[in-house]
Amino acid sequence: MQCHGYQCPAQTVFDPPVRVVRNIYHPQLVRVIHPIEVVNRHHCVPVYEHCYTVIEKNEQCTVSAVNKGKRSAR
Length: 74
Fold this sequence. Notes:
Elements: E1 2-3, E2 6-7
Antiparallel strand pairs: 1-2
C-alpha cells in the first residue's frame, strides 16, 4: 500500500485456526433377523356330492277297445 510516496511494508497476519469437522458416514451391514412362524390349519368342510339312483321298470299295458281306430275330436 502506498501512502504519499511512501511504500508501507507488507504485513502478514494469521488468524487462529478454525476447526472444521466433516462427518463422513460409511454403511455398515447389520443383520436383523425376523423370525416367521407359519401355521397350517386343516379344516374339514362339507362339500355335497349328489348321487341319484334310477329305478327302471317295465309295465305291460293292454290296448283299450274304445280308443282303437278312433280319432280324437278337435
